[in-house]
Backbone:
């Protein structure tokens, strides 16, 4: 069971929902919590102490200048301008490369081979005997978040329950996170931007055919626009978390709401059960 | 030597183009005769990304020795530097012909 927590809008509380959901599930069964927000991973703030599981690399070209005839074929092929054949040398700009391998295929004299280049890393921790936390961390200045997310998902791959803390937005990193998901929890807040971005995220889950439900976070009880949208789209509202100073304070010191406030254990356990029901087409 | 000037149009009376990689045309002069020997239609101008280095490779393949333009982005800058193509800003020049004359007079500022 792969549960992706996404939102569209940033800062709605994806990580808060992810860590509490994983915490609640891990009370009764082994659980994997995978931080797929590779550009701004935050799960480690709640579960520090993850160990380095090694680098994430992408393949980039290396040109053998002895074999290269400066014919220009690789540069003409590369639509990203990453490899350019200049007066006396071939110039490679790693930050433009999409690791497609086309330059290697287009080289008529086999002067190009692929070599790994580090863009990030994976960490793994086991904060409790039933909870494994895996984080995908993109190096600063790198762009290929999906490659790191893919590696994090592979590192956490198993047959049990995985909670994937997704990135904000609706572009490649989220799409990579959602790939293969059984169900999606969309965390929103009842603000105009929260709703606008929920709309986009909901369109994404619909496009992928992933069943989804909504969690309203920081609710001030004025959620009518969000509730109307959810009703219209047939998105069940699974949980509403109030705008509450105490909850914020618990979050801010890196604590888990469920472990501090017993009443939330039941709420997040119910969230898991309802999420499983959505995945099975029941709710 | 081949002197290449980024241009909004295809004639010496055209307005020089401020952008390097996304310029519509390159007007190429032979500085021994002072004549225009080629006008290159920039087929990369509307590409999504990596335009600068692609254009540098194209100019290298055409044997261009000097570039006169407005501004050069980071990726193109590196390409021009590695290719060893001195690049100048056309400054106040109002036409391609004026930019060429200013280059020949040695009054342009070198930017790469």
Residues:
């Amino acid at each position: 069971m792969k549960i992706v927590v996404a939102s569209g809008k940033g800062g709605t509380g994806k990580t808060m929902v992810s860590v509490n959901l994983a915490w609640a599930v891990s009370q009764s069964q082994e659980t994997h919590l995978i931080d797929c927000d590779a550009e701004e991973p935050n799960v480690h703030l709640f579960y520090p102490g993850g160990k380095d599981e090694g680098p994430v690399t992408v393949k980039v070209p290396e040109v053998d200048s002895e074999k290269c005839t400066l014919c220009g074929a690789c540069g003409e092929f590369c639509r990203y301008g990453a490899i350019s054949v200049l007066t006396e040398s071939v110039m490679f700009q790693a930050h433009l490369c999409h690791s497609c391998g086309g330059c290697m295929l287009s080289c008529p004299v086999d002067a190009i081979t692929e070599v790994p280049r580090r863009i990030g890393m994976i960490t793994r921790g086991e904060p409790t005997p039933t909870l494994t936390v895996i984080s995908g961390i993109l190096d600063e200045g790198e762009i290929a978040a999906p490659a790191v997310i893919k590696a994090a998902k592979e590192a956490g791959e198993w047959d049990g329950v995985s909670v994937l803390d997704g990135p904000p937005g609706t572009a490649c990193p989220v799409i990579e996170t959602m790939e293969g998901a059984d169900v999606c929890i969309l965390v929103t807040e009842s603000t105009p931007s929260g709703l606008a971005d929920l709309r986009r995220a909901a369109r994404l889950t619909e496009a992928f055919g992933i069943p989804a439900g909504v969690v309203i976070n920081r609710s001030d009880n004025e959620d009518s626009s969000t509730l109307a949208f959810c009703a219209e789209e047939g998105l069940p509202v699974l949980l509403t978390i109030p705008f509450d100073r105490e909850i914020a304070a618990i979050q801010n010191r890196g604590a888990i709401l469920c472990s501090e406030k017993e009443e939330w254990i039941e709420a997040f356990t119910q969230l898991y059960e309802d999420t499983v029901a959505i995945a099975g087409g029941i709710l | 030597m081949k002197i290449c000037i980024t241009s909004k149009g295809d004639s010496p009376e055209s307005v020089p183009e401020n952008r390097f990689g996304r310029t519509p045309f390159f007007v190429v002069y032979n500085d021994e005769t002072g004549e225009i020997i080629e006008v290159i239609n920039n087929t990369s101008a509307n590409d999504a990304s990596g335009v600068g280095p692609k254009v540098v490779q194209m100019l290298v393949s055409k044997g261009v020795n000097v570039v006169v333009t407005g501004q050069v982005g980071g990726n193109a800058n590196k390409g021009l530097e590695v290719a060893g193509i001195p690049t100048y800003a056309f400054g106040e020049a109002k036409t391609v012909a004026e930019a060429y004359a200013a280059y020949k007079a040695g009054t342009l500022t070198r930017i790469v």
Notes: Chain B has a mean pLDDT of 97.
